Amino acid sequence: MVRPRELPDSARVVIIGGGVGGTSIAYHLAKLGERDVVLLDRNELTSGSTFHSAGLVGQLRSSVSLTRMMMNSVELYRTLDCGWVQCGGIRLACTPEREQEVLRQVAWAKTFDSLRLEKGYRVWAADITPDETPYEAGLGFCVRKQGGFIGAPALGLGEGEKGSVGRPSKRLRCLALDDPRSVALGNEPVRIGNQVLGRVTSGGYGYTVKRSIAYAYVPAEVELGTSVEVDIFGRWVPGLVTREPLFDPKGERVRV
Ligand SMILES: Cc1cc2nc3c(=O)[nH]c(=O)nc-3n(C[C@H](O)[C@H](O)[C@H](O)COP(=O)(O)OP(=O)(O)OC[C@H]3O[C@@H](n4cnc5c(N)ncnc54)[C@H](O)[C@@H]3O)c2cc1C
């Protein structure tokens, strides 16, 4: 049903179509401070395909930018009072063709993990947990040195503290394994010399660098270039503690 409204003669921004796309553009423009925005719809707001789909916000999409958009959407919905319920889901394949499609999606998801391993991006709940400090995780550069935030005293950054946490007892290290076909999945023991001194937090194959990559917490004194072994399915696979990230170490690609 069309509801005629008093429309302004002009506006700095006119958005045509009030589905999730148009309303989202209006929301973000308003957040950026744009006040002169008109949203037009030939029908009711969200009466297009958005009307049918107040359901799933699946995260994995056909491109990196779409996937990122969906992830940002979830972050936003968490902050809105909109009855958002976050849960997981299961995809069932009832035909061989559908099974192949689902397997392709799994491969696509693994590619994302591969890319972040090559860039050294940490995964929350695997590479970093409440049990590790940012210094141990190699994220000390993200910490405000003068403190003044929740958790600063726990990091030794309170008033009068000298920041003793600058020298952690363990460090998250990138391990490049000699055999590219042996891939760690997580939780595998890491041996240095004859002693198990760490465990893999996450691992996978880096398709760009063509290496099997594993991240693991090892004692802080373990230097770059140290030989390690990772127990993958009962076989100790040798590798080296390697400078990270393995791909684009100067970050030139992400600044293009
Ligand atoms: C049955 C169904 C289920 C779906 N389930 C999901 C799901 O679970 N999860 C998911 O992520 N996606 C789902 N989708 C896809 C999702 O609904 C769409 O991708 C999304 O809603 C598109 O939003 P939009 O704002 O681009 O378009 P729309 O929601 O279609 O909005 C377009 C708007 O533009 C208006 N309009 C069109 N032409 C004009 C004009 N000339 N002048 C003025 N106004 C105009 C229309 O009235 C409409 O309100 C589903 C789609 C369908 C059909």
Supply database-style keywords.
Elongation Factor Tu (Ef-tu), domain 3, 6-stranded antiparallel β-barrel, alpha+beta, two-stranded parallel ribbon, single chain
What's a concise summary of this model?
The protein has helices at 20-31, 64-79, 96-119; strands at residues 13-16, 37-40, 170-177, 189-192, 195-206, 211-219, 227-232, 235-242.
Structural notes for this entry:
This protein has helices at 20-31, 64-79, 96-119; strands spanning 13-16, 37-40, 170-177, 189-192, 195-206, 211-219, 227-232, 235-242. The mean pLDDT is 90. Among the domains are: 13-77, no CATH class; 140-161 and 168-242, Beta Barrel (Elongation Factor Tu (Ef-tu), domain 3). The chain is globular. The strands form 2 sheets. The chain has a 6-stranded antiparallel barrel. By secondary structure, it is α+β, with helices and mostly antiparallel strands. The structure holds flavin-adenine dinucleotide (FAD). Flavin-adenine dinucleotide binds at residues 16-22, 40-43, 47-50, 52-53, 55-57.
Bound small molecules, by name, code or SMILES, are:
flavin-adenine dinucleotide
CATH class of the domain at 140-161 and 168-242: Mainly Beta
Largest sheet data: 6 strands, antiparallel, barrel
Number of strands: 8
CATH topology of the domain at 140-161 and 168-242: Elongation Factor Tu (Ef-tu), domain 3
Topology:
Layout: E1 13-16, H1 20-31, E2 37-40, H2 64-79, H3 96-119, E3 170-177, E4 189-192, E5 195-206, E6 211-219, E7 227-232, E8 235-242
Parallel strand pairs: 1-2
Antiparallel strand pairs: 3-6, 3-8, 4-5, 4-7, 5-6, 7-8
The protein binds flavin-adenine dinucleotide.
